[in-house]
UniProtKB/TrEMBL annotation:
<feature type="domain" description="Aminotransferase class I/classII large">
    <location>
        <begin position="62"/>
        <end position="424"/>
    </location>
</feature>
<keyword id="KW-0808">Transferase</keyword>
<dbReference type="InterPro" id="IPR050596">
    <property type="entry name" value="AspAT/PAT-like"/>
</dbReference>
<comment type="similarity">
    <text>Belongs to the class-I pyridoxal-phosphate-dependent aminotransferase family.</text>
</comment>
<dbReference type="GO" id="GO:0004069">
    <property type="term" value="F:L-aspartate:2-oxoglutarate aminotransferase activity"/>
</dbReference>
<keyword id="KW-0032">Aminotransferase</keyword>
<keyword id="KW-0663">Pyridoxal phosphate</keyword>
<dbReference type="InterPro" id="IPR015424">
    <property type="entry name" value="PyrdxlP-dep_Trfase"/>
</dbReference>
<dbReference type="Pfam" id="PF00155">
    <property type="entry name" value="Aminotran_1_2"/>
</dbReference>
<dbReference type="GO" id="GO:0006520">
    <property type="term" value="P:amino acid metabolic process"/>
</dbReference>
<protein>
    <submittedName>
        <fullName>AspC1</fullName>
        <ecNumber>2.6.1.1</ecNumber>
    </submittedName>
</protein>
<dbReference type="GO" id="GO:0030170">
    <property type="term" value="F:pyridoxal phosphate binding"/>
</dbReference>
<dbReference type="InterPro" id="IPR004839">
    <property type="entry name" value="Aminotransferase_I/II_large"/>
</dbReference>
<dbReference type="InterPro" id="IPR015421">
    <property type="entry name" value="PyrdxlP-dep_Trfase_major"/>
</dbReference>
Amino acid sequence: MITDFKNQNTPIDIEIVRGKIEASGVPSIGNGTIREIVKIVNEIQQASGQKFIRMEMGVPGLSPPEVGINGEMEALKSGVASKYPMLEGILPLKKEASRFIKMFMDVDVPQECCIPTVGSMQGGYATFMMLGNLDERKNTILFLDPGFPVQKQQMNVLGQKYEAFDVYNHRGDKLEAKLESFCSKGNISGILYSNPNNPSWICFTDDELQTIAKIADKYDIIVIEDLAYFAMDFRKDLSMPGKPPFQATIARYTENYILLISSSKAFSYAGQRVGILAISPELYERRYPCLKERFGSDRFGYTLIYKILYSFSSGTSHSAQYGLAAMLKAANDGEFNFVESVRVYGERAVAIKALFKDAGFDIVYSMDLDEELGDGFYFTVSFTGMTGAELVERLLYYGISAIALSGTGSEREGMRVCMSQIGSDEFDTLKVRLEQFGRDYSD
């Protein structure tokens, strides 16, 4: 725990923050998980009466779309709450999910291969379990970091192995050799990445996706594409259904893919815990002898739905499926521009990034190959002379909360800044607190 301060007069009382850190029992709060940071900040706020600028958790800061709410309310009024949902999902959602993938990704995935899950986190967890049981020689997932820390926690809970590398220094022409160095060993069952990336916000190009697909096909590896921030690369207008440009995807270049499509960020529907797990039709029908031995069925898609997802939660919330189906239909029909509804995150990023820079912070991941990084849901910052963990802990005394990059698999020091919970009415407070921090700790 940090005990030295250049200025004892911090925006949040030092003794309150110190006391809550000690009471938390977390060995290094600066390296704490997202939920550990959330918990301690809630406690400090309650004890101090001072409101924090919350940057630690990717919670949507926008109201859910009316079309989704109305779709779910109509379903509830019709009595779906008393009925178990079918494990494979309701037909309206499966149909609209298939259409959505075609309209906004220009990829054909049959509705049979589109399965609702209790958020993308459940979809990822089920996928990790599947991939760990396909081939006894392949027992490891490769993470293209930085990434979402909880996915590695899921691997730990499952007792499965993973390897990882920070992809930032291995982009473009360097990517193939780096992937080869891991995949040629023969133990990699899957490759996972997010696109746009959480937390760096880099976006893989089509050339890079083709490289990943090439390696996946060469070594028979399944690619898991986490689309938590679907179409949120605001440098391009990805909002028009059926018209290019489309959301970049591995699905154009290989049959060995699984897509995790979230409703949490792009549709501001995080609380209903509903997402889509989309499997390539070829992989859906593929048969694996090891699955037969472990689960009693060898068909990939069938086993995923009726053996694994069934055992998790016996289906995905019935009414939430109708809400998501309504939003997807409205987007597919051109009646709801879901991208425009979340573009405000990029606008916030421009303003908030400027406040950090003016206070003496540096941007950690600043370039996307030869382009300037886009502005979106996250960006990353560092402060000279501090590790990411130290920066996160010190900022708690200034009423600012975030998570360290170390937990995301980044090789760089710094922290992740999330836009979603910061309203424009908080910009002045953030400015004052950052400026004081900069004065207190600049050499």
